[in-house]
Amino acid sequence: MGPVELLHMSVFSQSFSPCGRFLAAGNNYGEIAVFSLSAALSPDASEASQKPILNFTAHDGPVFSLLSTDTHLLSAGNGEISAWSWAELIKKSTKAAWTRKPSYETSLEIPEINAMIINPKDNSLIVGGGDNNIHIMDMETGIFKSVLKGHTDYIHCLCFKEREEEILSGGEDGAVRIWDARTNRPVHCIEVFKYEECARPQFGKWISCLATDSDWMLCGGGPSLSLWHLRSMSPTSVFPLPGCQREAVFYQDLIMSVGEGPHVSHCLHGGTVKAQIPCTPSSLNTLALNLKNSEHRVMTVGGSSHQIDVFTNFSYRAFSLSF
Amino acid sequence: MSSDAVKKRKPKVVRNEAGTPETKRSRAEGDQLSAVSSHVEFRKVRLRQVQEVRVYNEEVELEDRDPQQDYMLYKDTCADLAKLMAEIQELKSSGAKVGSVEIEERHRQCSVHFITLKKLNRLAHMRLKKGRDQTHEAKQRVDVLHLQLQNLLYEVMHLQKEISKCLEFKSQHEEIELVSEEEFFQEAPAEISRPHVTRDDNHQLTLARLDWELEQRKRLAEQYKMSLARKEKIQKAIEQKREYLSSLQPGLQNIMQASLPVQEYLSMPFEQMQKQAEVARHLPPPLYVLLVQAAAYGQACGKTHIFTLNKTLSVNISGDVDEAKALSRRPEDSQEDESDSDAEEEQQNTKRRRATVGVQLEDKRKAMLRRHPLSLCVDLKCKDGSVLHLVFYYLMNLNILTVKTKVSTATDLSGAVSAGELLNSESLLNCLYASDHGKETPNPANRYQFDKVGITTFADYVSDLGHPYVWVQKLGGLQFSSDGAQVALSASHMEKTMKLLRGRLQARLALHKQFSSLEHSIIPVSSECQHLFPAKVVSGLTRWTMMSYQEFTELGFVQHVLKAGLVCETDLFFMAVVERGTARLLAAVVLNPRYPEVMPLFSLSLHWKGERSGRTEDNLRAMESEVNVFRAELQGPRPGLQLLTNQIQRLCVCLDVYLETESQVCDGSEGPREFPREKMCLRTARGPSRLKPFKYNHPQGFFSHR
């Protein structure tokens, strides 16, 4: 990897290992790098420990989504999903455990996969991407058992509500659709750009981030990042963030959000921006919280840079991991 | 009883007298005359006996007497005398008359005793005298003996000295290095070695070895004499042959002269080559190495290009040959003189001539930077007829090679303003190998030389003296330890360097051509590369200008490139402006001297509905990577001389795609679109960062995502 390639690298996805000691990150060249958090966070960390312990090419296209199950790392490339055993990755072996492709109708261009989530209730993998449809794969058998059709443009993001067993999906068409995971039928459709409070026509209507917490939903993208009350299906607060947001999460009583602009925004539920923490990349694609391991409780963000910023205290950048 | 014993013994004594007087004396000493009465009797007997044998001699008598006895006798006599005196006293006191019988008797006895005493006295005197004599005699004997002893001791000492002298004696033969014993027994003939004698006798052995040595030396001397004679003979023969050869010279020269027209006619420049070889003898070693290697490489190449009928590489020597001859005749002397005078001058400087220090330093600098009067011109021809002229100089005192370059082209290359730097001799060969800028001297020793005369950096003199690139030193066989451990011969660098030089020239000429088109806002896409781009490209280049490093660094949208350390001051910087309608795309281009090996690096800034740059917008960033990263797609036919043109053309295509898809996304009902969608795209956005489809698929003609 030459310096020019490094200059043009973007990090799209991250996932912590089940043990919480490792971080996998995927970039636009189809590479996955595995970092050792325990080494990077140890008191005697050197520059070398901020480099990946393993770096391999997983897919042809960019790796837009990474997901960890109890044993495996799932990575989404150009229209295919590969699984890598964490145990093997730590031993630096880079042989895929399996690779599956959803059945696509289009043939000219292979649709990308933008989002993957696990439905823990029936152990299925929910995949959304470039063909506007949501594919559901049974993790036991590896068979794609159903397709949810409804979006008119490609799907940016997915979210799962465990209590109601509902799947939420946000897409380029500007709609947040809610599906019943048991019957695979659409339940609701919120067209966010039609609400004046959130609409931003100068950007567009796409929804690129979704998050839920009991009855609450966060969504943003072309429209402003906004907090919705799901039972009443109305926006309760709109956050005055200038750029388009790409990822937002609930964390305790805070909402953290990343997107265009070199900073992580801390927002309060009431609709105020509490802080904007500067970071290295000029725009951010992904934010991940490592809550599985109390020892390595960190937040990592990646974006249009080969560097992944690590926050040990969430209010300032501690150091950067680097591809 | 005792007197009896004495009587009996006496005759014996007399008989024995002549034999051993000593034993007799000792026996006499052993006897004790116990009684006074017997003493008188004894005396009478003795007197009688002496008278019988010989005449009385008191001295003889003395010998017979025992002093101890005499002493006893004396004591007894004295006691008797005292007793008698006491009796007389007693008698007298008892009233006896003076003349009475008893007293008279006692008077007589007294007289006898006195006589005895007298005798004893005499004897004592005589004994004393005798004793003295004996002592004296003995003393004399002792003296004689002592003298003898002294003599003997002296003799012993002398002998010891002689012995040690003998022991210390060093024979000359010990200094002669002899062959070892085994060798001696092996080699020497039996009559010299005589093993039966010398095996046991060390002395004989040494003698024999010395003999053998002498023998051998004699033999060698003989041989030496013979060799000398032979040498003499050979020398004479050489002399004769030399004379013969020199007599040949004029004849040969005549033949050469006569053959000149033939040579010219056949275009075989033997003469010229010979002359060059003659001059080459005066070249300094590095230039000579360079000459030989370059000539060899030129010949090897000439064969491969035999059909083109012109040599691709020619080497010439230029400069003042006489001066070089003078220099090569006594290079060491001049060197020493110089350093000596340097030292002297320095002293003088410090003493009194401070005012002229500057002038002198200047002179010294000049002397240090002096180059060898001969230089080497290497002309490298390219297929299209342009020639790269390289002139190699040798700086004698710095021990480095420098090179000056000039390009002469087959076609006229005027017109391109921004191309001025391209064929500039200053920068033409920069970074032929990575980070070889040719500004600083590669010889680490020069640093100290410079300090002495106050030169801060060699870069100030580069325009005068030429560039001391590291590859030039390598071609000349000069190795300086700074560049790692690999030591390679000049020959191993020649081919690679010549290829690089030719590649560099071709790249520069190709760039030159491209620049002159670009300045006229024409993107000269070659026919081989047409398939990389769609047929219709609306965006067009409107400006192509040069920038300085300073100007480049002041641009806001290149900071990330600067920060990544991808820009060097020796690079060339350009600003390209691509326009379509109201949109204006600025592209700052970093052109590495090693183009096309290193891709030009573009940084973008779009002025359209506000300003966006690759820093702030993902799509512009994607455009940057589209032109910067995918070298394999863009370089066209090897070695990729069309790279820059293709990059600019792709930039135009990307701008088209960007504008056409962008307007579709965000315009609502603002009247007619400024940029109607003409490019065929499968999807206008993809992935989380909603990138536009910048990748052109050739035969189908649509745009897709990476």
Architecture overview:
Chain A: Keywords: Repeat, WD repeat. Chain A: It comes from Cyprinus carpio carpio. Chain A: Belongs to the WD repeat THOC6 family. Chain A: One of its GO terms (cellular component) is THO complex. The complex is a heterodimer of chains A (323) and B (706). Chain A is 5% helix and 48% strand. Chain A has three helices and 28 strands. Chain B is an alpha+beta fold. Chain B contains 24 helices and eleven strands. In chain B, the strands form three sheets. A five-stranded antiparallel beta sheet of chain B has the order 5-6-7-8-9. Chain B has a four-stranded antiparallel beta sheet with strand order 1-2-3-4. The longest helix of chain B is centred in the first third of the chain and has 68 residues. The interface between A and B is medium-sized, with 32 and 30 residues.
Short description:
The complex is a heterodimer of chains A (323) and B (706). Chain A is mainly beta and 323 residues long. Chain A contains three helices and 28 strands.
Percent of residues in helices of chain A comes to under 10%
β-sheet strand percentage of chain A: over 45%
Beta strand count of chain A: 28
- Large-scale geometry of chain A: globular
Annotation field: number of helices of chain A: 3
Helical segment count of chain B: 24
Largest interface: A-B, 32 and 30 residues
User: Residue-averaged pLDDT of chain A, rounded?
Assistant: 90
Count of strand segments of chain B: 11
> By helix and strand content of chain A, what is the structural category?
mainly beta
